Amino acid sequence: IQVYKTRYLKKIVPMTKPELDILEHYTSAHLSDPTSKELRGVVVYDGVCGMGKTHDIIDQINRLITKIPAARVIYVSPFLDELTRVGIALHATKNGAKFFRPESWGKGKLHGLKVLLKLNCNILTTHKLFNGLDAEAIKLIQENNYHLIMDEEPTVMTLAEKKYKPNLSSNEVATFIENGTLITDPTTGLVSWNPQGLREYSRYNDVKNDCDRGNLIKYSDKGKPILLWRQNPASFNCFKTIHILTYLFKGSILQAYLDLYNIPYLIRDKTMEELFSNNKIHPYHKLIHFHQTK
What pTM, to 2 d.p., does this model score? Predict the structure, then answer.
């Protein structure tokens, strides 16, 4: 991975257009077998709000589907209103593919997502639903060679205690570990749920589900153990390519997460010339003066 970053990062970053032919980069002999379903890598589009990242990626999706009609995309955003806007923009284009949002149909949104995956649909969904991907959904994504578009940085790691309502206290965590309800893998730190440890666990059903999805890890240095919720790396590794639209990626939790789990990425940030070109802020660009410093 380090060799990959050293050899290819500097070559790709200076490009002045969004990477239309991402597939060619990731299916080259340098990186992996083109027939493989394994992750090719992540492209991070780093830039301030309003610089056209979403517009560019919508254009790229349409060009990808026009070039490869069988290509399938999952677009993830934190807001339903944004998904509606993106869906309308994608449908409005000449060759735009139809995208669908998961419905619960009385069985939960995750069930609805799996139905769309089985139908091999292009999908619009939220960060919250993405955080809840289970083994079955991950398998369907990989089998159908989906591409992921992630609008805004996702939550990839946080304190588990504050994730649940009511909060899961450190005392409860310690008790569950002591009585065998929570079992920790000594090598990976992954926490699994022991169905024999607690007979009545309805209040802790979300904790059990996160254990089953491989989202919980235990950290303890001194004092009581701490549970961390983290996005299962398999939910990224199942995609053919990943495109993340964000700002201030360098030094972020997301960058640390990708480094921790050895997920290769390319940082694509627009140059000053691109950001303040005439067609971006015309007619005001002539009124803005920059003082270049080292």
Answer: 0.78
